[in-house]
Protein 1
Amino acid sequence: MSKLIYQKTKETDIKELTMIMKRAFDDDTKRHTDLLEDGPQGYNDGSLLKRLLALKDGATFTIYLDKKATNYIHYYIIER
């Protein structure tokens, strides 16, 4: 049975997650625009994930499926 694991994202995860993020944004771009590649600033060089990791009001977790990184999730903590 496949197993999902969520672990706090580490600096060492950035390279692998950036490749995943680039494929996802580029695929979405191809499907919905006339462009072949596009995404938010830093999606393709790791700087977007580095900025997310540096935010103090949020948390970023890498999602593993059978010990292989498959995606990440970032959420903000907002006190009301």
Note: The helical segments are 14-32, 47-54.
Protein 2
Amino acid sequence: MSLNKSDYICMLIYHYWPDKVGGAEQSCRRLAAGLAEHGYKCIVLTARTNLLYSRIEKDGNVTIRRFFVPEAWVAVLRSIVGFFQSSKTQSNDHSNSPSRPKEPLRKTIGLDVILSRLLKYWNSLFFMSGVSMWCFWHRKRISILHVHTSDWIAGVAGWLCHWHGIHALCKESTFPALPEYTQGIPFRSALNMWRKRLPFIAQNPNVKEDLVAKGIRQDCVFVIPNPIPICGIERHEHQSPFVLWIGNASQGIDTKGLDVLASSWERIKHECPSATLALLGAGVDDKVHSLFDSQNSNGVEFFGYVDDVNIWIKRAWVVVLPSRREGMSNALLESMALGVPVVASNIPGNKYIVKHDITGRLFSSEDSSSLTQEVLKLIDSPDERKRLGDSAQQYVVDHYDKSSVVLKTIACYESLHKGSIPGC
């Protein structure tokens, strides 16, 4: 029995556009748009994290259905409290009276952790309930439920798959695979059991191997990469050496190897005083600033989250990714798609994309000196930058073009719907 285009293909993900999004959310949006282009009715089931977001709206030909979570009201309350605190601070600035001693940081941090876990608990509970009820009422119209993160939401998909008879699968983009659930998630043991009963889409063979090692049947794991749009944007290198890092720093300085980059940048700047390093992405906060300040690093610009990274990528001389852990980096693929040479740590996820001295350069993930040498070589050689950039661009066109990834995903859906994949 093949997929019926009048039925629903549902994407399940907690955060979604227009929230500040990462790789999973970008890939979900691209895949949903690609499925809609092929005539499928695609619905994204996501959380309503902001009261300004509509409960139901259209993103092109894709329908977005949002479910209420308490953090939407918390965001409003924080804005109100922030406004009054700001007003109070301004009034205190004009007063000569001494300021009140602040509460000990230890107590404040402890309270923040407790409140954060409580909020996470109720957010997940509300989201589970809303999605479960919606899927129950529409169970006869749902062809596929595709969950885009392997956290607790994958467990919810596994439960819906079992009890409502819905065909479901999960995309695994993290490495190591199947990360443990954090504190504050209800029914953690049950959800962990249910997610392991799903078929999986792994982004590369390394992720598949790790999934199999953790108990997922080999015939239930399919290797399909993220869809990458091939843009017709021309490169316009910045007039002076411009090095770019893109990532989600909130995943951890250690995970993203920012300590290695900070150490390397001090030497790069010494050898090439005109060079600039730009850091883009969520989580580029005071901790990241302090890290680079501790290395006496100059020429570093902190931009945080930006809506369109392509504007920055096309100006870069080199894009660096010193991560210690990655599944498959969209930042690498998008940079390569624009013909920008990349220097990446030689971890499994990066080595699958970057072929050393063919589509980019690799360095030992702990060796800041090696990173320094590779970046300086590319800064000093325009011909080498062009050679690697052109080769990388062709590689992405051949293997990661959005249209071919969408077709592979549809074929996976067909196999799941026909029952030729064990599991849900």
Note: DSSP finds 15 helices and 14 strands in the chain.
Protein 3
Amino acid sequence: MTPIAARRRTAFLAVGAAVLLLAVALRIRGATGSLWLDEVWTFKLLENIGHSAFDVIFGLPHDNNHHLNTLWLLLVGPLAPEPLQRGLSILCGSAAVVAAGLFFGKERPAAALFAMAITAAAYPFVHYGSEARGYAGLMLFMLAGLVLVDRELAADAPSDTRRMRLGIVVVLGLLSHLGSLHAFLAAGLWAAAVEARRLRSAREGLRSAFAMFAPAAMMSGVLGLCLAVGIARYGLHVGGILLPGEGGLLHGYGMMMAYTFGLPTEWNPPPVALATMVSTALAVARFRDDRRFVLYGIGILLLPLIMFASAQPFNGVPRRHFVSAVFVALMAADLAGRAFERGGAARLAAAVLMIGFSGLQARQLETFFIYGRGDAKGALAVLAQSPHAVIATTFEARDGVMLRFYAARERTALNIVSDPRRACASDPLWLLTEVDVPLAERALPCGPNGPEFRPHWVDRPYGLAGEPTEIWKRVDR
């Protein structure tokens, strides 16, 4: 290695290490604050089963059971500090930053550092990399799988070892979150497309891709059989709650892309979605001979179309498009890396764009760190000021669940009544409700002589989790 190459390698490692430290710090900061509904719901699910890994795999067929995360929460328990409960996600989310760099590797050092920087600091990746759910594991094993597939496609000869590793990664991805099926579907289609172009035969391309993913198919088949046993015994339960104002696929996709780019969320999501798709199509057409741009086209363009055509539920929810956001991050890093490698004005433009991106993300992260995913502990502190008072709620499925969790955790007695008729008869002091719903849905049906309430405390979480919550206090006449 020449002295110049050695200095470049040292600089690359130093910058990469700094970016990784930033990623860890942001995720630790994001892991503070109250758990929100979907995190608490996992603990609620654990109340109904035994306390073993066997029970988590076979006895909990629920869409909120992200198996590795559930096992972690089973290990640390409901009384652990929130950062520890989110510790597995912090670890996986930080490791995903390294995996993003490895996707480009030594052959594209600039793109590798851009990929690390984007995945380290973009709000969606910090959010899900610090939340006690399975998305951080999904991202880590998705990227690890893409690294293995990319190296297999670039190799002169197939590697059984690499394919076995791919199988293990696929299983770990599925155990993290079943949404990783989208990621591995994209990876399989990518392998088939690249091999079909190399072999000049669609049939041979499919055969080559099937061979590459054969160990993964067998291993995931065993996992699928285990999950099927649980579904056969207990049935499959879906706990998704549709939130007010949800739109269609373009709405959810556009919201996720707005968060990923750091754009104001007040912008209309469908135009953001269409702009992302058009830009991707142009980039794929421009660099169509590069195998990675085939992947970006599949992950950013084809996956949403598959989701739409198959009428998958909750397509209007931004997190459903998290996998596509990861592909967008990789493509953005690839394009920025190409510009940086060209030097001159292109390098300056790449640097300016990254500075602008950093500023937009800093604004988002500041807001997220201030407001978090909601403040259930803060709500509990307000309500605990009157320990024997009746608390009425018209949203037991969300607000009531979180309050009961933290009340049990803090050993605070709360008298929460969710039945509207009982609430009217019990003369409640507090009304726990949500902000972004019609006033008629928040009011208690107590008639003209019922209690009158006024706003007392409000909690407005930011971004991809939580629902704005208000506490109203009775006005004594």
Note: The radius of gyration is 24 Å.
